[in-house]
Queue: 2 jobs
Job 1
Amino acid sequence: MQNPRLASRYAKSLKDLAVERDQLEAVHSDMLLLKAITRSNADVVVLLRSPVIKADKKIKILGAILDGKISAITTGFIRLLNTKGRESLLPEIAVEFEKQYNILKNITRVKLTSAAPLEAGQLNMIREKVEASAGRKVEIETAVNPDLIGGFVLETGNELFDASIQRDLKDIKKQFLKNIYVPELR
C-alpha cells in the first residue's frame, strides 16, 4: 500500500458522503467494481500511478472504462482525486472503503479453503455456524486447495480454524516422531 492513512481518510470521506446522500449501496458496488478492475488489470494500476500520463488523459481513459457503470458520487470522487493528484490511491481507497463499509454494516469477511468445491448447502451450514459464533453477518470468500486432502480451513481476521485432513496427518506424524512408548536409548 502506498499510503494507508491517506487512503483510509479518503475512503471515510466517500463513505460519509454516500451515507449523507443515502447512496451507500450504490457507492459500495462502484468501489467493488473498481477493486475488481484494478485487481484483474495491472495496466489500470500502472496508468493511475504513472507520472508521465497527464491527469486529463487519465480521466478520459477511466471515463471510457467506467462510462455508465458508476454513480455520480463516485464519478465526482474520482475527479476530485484526479484534481488533487491522488488518483494513484484509487485501488487502496477501494479496498479501504470496503473495510469501512463492512464495519458500518457489521459484516465479517472470512476465507474458506476446502479440498473440493463446496455445495450450497454445506456453505450455508458453515455460514450459519460462523454467524452464530461471531454474532454478526458473514461474507464467505471460497477457495479450493486439493493439498488439504479433505476438510476445510476457515480464516477470519486473525483467527484460523483448521479442520483439514492435511493438518490431522501432520499431527499424527508429530506423534509418531515423538513416540513416547519407546524408551530412550542411552
Job 2
Amino acid sequence: MIGGMYIEVLVLAGIIIGVLIVNGKIDKGVFFMNNPEIYSRFKESDYDFYVRAKYGDQVDPDVLFSKRIQNGALVVFLILFISLANLKYTTVIASLIAGYFTFKMQYSSLKKSYKAKLHEYDTMLPYYLKNLEILVQHYTVPVALGKSIDEAPPIFKKGLEELINTINAGDSTIEPYMEFARTYPVRDSMRMMRLLYRLSLGTSEGKQEQLLNFSKTISNLQAKAREIKYKNRLEKMEGKTMIMLTATGFGVMVLLLIAILNMMSM
C-alpha cells in the first residue's frame, strides 16, 4: 500500500514536471546543457554521424537528441496518467518499455536511412582520397587536407574542418585522424586515416614510399567501390528480371486456368 502510494507520488511529480516542460515553464535546453551526463549515458556513440549523414549541417544532433528524450518521457507520462486511477507496477514497467521504444525509434530510423545510402558514402571516400593524394604530392598533409575541403563530399566537410583545427592547434598524434575515422565509420576509414597519419610523419626521403603505399590502397578502394557498384546494378537487373518472369508465369497460369474452365463448361 505504501509502495503504491510512493509510486503515485513519483508519477504525479513526473507528470507535473512534464507539463511544466511542455508549457515552457522549465527550459529543457538549459536542463540538458546543465546535465551532460544524460548524453554520455544514453546518447549512442554514432548518433551524431547518422544525423549528419541524413540532414547535413541543417540539424543540430544535440537538439534532436533532446527531442528524443522529451518524446520518450512524454509517452511514459501519458501512459501513467491514463492509468493513474488503477496504477500497478506492471503499468509502470510497460510505460518505461514504451518510452524506451519511442526513444530508440528515431535512432533506428536514422540507422536504416544510413544503411540504405551506405554504398553511396562508401564510394565517396575513395574518390575524395584520390583528390587528396594529388594534393599531398605538393603539400604537407595538413595543408592538403585544408585545400581538399572544397572538393570533399558534404558529409565529410565538418569532420575535416575539426581534424584540421585539431592538428593546427598542435596535436601531432594519431588521435585526430582516428577521431575522424570513428566519426565517419565508412569502409576502411580507420586504415586510410592511419596511412594518412604515417604519411604526415614521413621525411622527404620516405615520403615517396609512403605516398606509393597510400596510392595503391586508394586504387584498391576504388576497385572495390566499382565492383560493388556493378554487383548492385546486376542484382537490381536480376530482381527486375525475376519480377517480370514471375508476372509472366502468373499470367500464363491464369490464361491456362481460364482456358480449362471454358473447356469444362462446354
